[in-house]
Design goal:
Blueprint: E1 2-9, E2 13-18, E3 24-29, E4 32-37, E5 42-47, E6 61-63, E7 72-74, E8 76-77, E9 93-101, E10 110-117, E11 124-129, E12 135-140, E13 146-151, E14 154-160
Antiparallel strand pairs: 1-14, 2-3, 2-8, 3-4, 4-5, 6-7, 9-10, 10-11, 12-13, 13-14
């Protein structure tokens, strides 16, 4: 089963991307960049360098650093047209429902909600919603063992137990 590993407040989050064949995620924000293990939910590395000069807008890719040094990582979010996968090989799916009524006492507002569904649709699990923070990206890792929801102000990390 899946469990929530961690949620990080990240102001100005712009793009996220998984390294090939891994559950390690790079996060690009207005404050710099970070690397997270999405299996454990831990922040592995962080710097405040200006990453924009290293970002390839045509491919939405950036060169990794720290643990991901040397890797070229495709990212998804505010910039580019690449999207993280929304389904695993064994049938787990992330679904985005737009224009949903928010929870009380904010029911007059509309939000986008993200749900996780089991392979046979027997289980539908609420994962996250936008609201005051804009949805940037969501999706599974290349291994299918973790997923993230990235909003403009936070990163939620989930993985299999």
């Amino acid at each position: 089963m899946w469990s929530h590993k961690n949620t990080y407040a990240i102001g100005g989050l712009e793009n996220v991307g998984y390294a090939d064949n891994s559950d390690n995620l790079i996060v690009l924000s207005s404050q710099g960049r970070g690397v997270f293990s999405c299996v454990t939910g831990e922040k592995i590395d962080r710097d405040s360098l200006d990453w924009w000069s290293q970002f390839d807008e045509s491919t939405s890719a950036i060169r990794g650093f720290g643990l991901l040094a040397g890797a070229i990582i495709k990212t998804s979010g505010l910039y580019g047209k690449y999207f993280l996968p929304t389904e695993t090989n064994d049938g787990w799916t992330l679904i985005k429902r737009e224009n949903e009524v928010d929870d009380p006492p904010f029911e007059k507002y509309r939000v986008t909600k993200i749900f996780l569904t089991s392979p046979n649709n027997e289980k539908i699990i609420f994962i996250s919603k936008d609201g005051p923070c804009e949805l940037r990206s969501f999706g599974f890792s290349p291994t299918g063992n973790s997923f993230v929801v990235a909003l403009s102000c936070e990163l939620a990390i989930w993985s299999r137990d």
